[in-house]
Amino acid sequence: MSDHGRLMDGVYRYQRHIYDLTRKYYLLGRDGMISGLAPPPGGTVLEIGCGTGRNLIAAGKAWPEAHLHGVDISEAMLNTARTSVTKAGLSDRVILAKGDACAFDPQSLFGRTQFDRVFISYALSMIPGWEAALEQAARCVAPGGRLDIVDFGQQEGWPRLCKAMLLTWLARFHVSPRTGIASAVEAAARHYGGHALNLSLYRGYCFRGTILVPKTAKNRGTLGIR
């Protein structure tokens, strides 16, 4: 297991049991992203950093024809996700696997290399090599598909004291909002000849980024955004 995997298992060994209850009040923008996924009928969806499986279950209910996949580095979180997916009656539509967001092999984990929709929800701010994770996610998008990201923003519209308090609190959970995320999304979109849509929501509390990959995407080599 990688150092980051051990760290995440340590952080969430006990928190995973109350994670969804406590996070729903401040992980804003997730449900809006999920409701807009709109995979094609029978399409494939991948969540990178799937955690407790909460988002995949929501996506499964919103898009009943979609085939869902989730990867996470924490075995503790995956244990919770497996239980939750089974309780939701989605075991036949959700495949979960352990892997590093920066370097997993989708073919070996899921039997496919590309997905119609890929999304990352509040995970890049916890991944030390987040640029590599973004590159990996972009490579997993099928031609004509889309990558969606939601995460903490820069709180540019917040009072300085409130911003400082939020950042201090997030640091306790090894969370660090990424200052270069918007430019990295734009660079990835250019690499594939696609389009990027970046939004700052709730006065900068959270960031929404989208990469639209064209049906005739360019080569899938290294993006070079690191």
UniProtKB/TrEMBL annotation:
Top-rank taxon, per record: Bacteria
One Pfam match: Methyltransf_25
Keywords noted in UniProt: Methyltransferase, Transferase
Top enzyme category: transferase
One Gene Ontology biological process: methylation
GO molecular function terms listed in the Swiss-Prot or TrEMBL record: methyltransferase activity
Residue ranges of every copy of the Methyltransferase domain listed in the record: 45-145
EC id: 2.1.1.-
Name of the protein this chain belongs to: Class I SAM-dependent methyltransferase
InterPro entries per the UniProt record, alphabetical: Methyltransf_25, SAM-dependent_MTases_sf
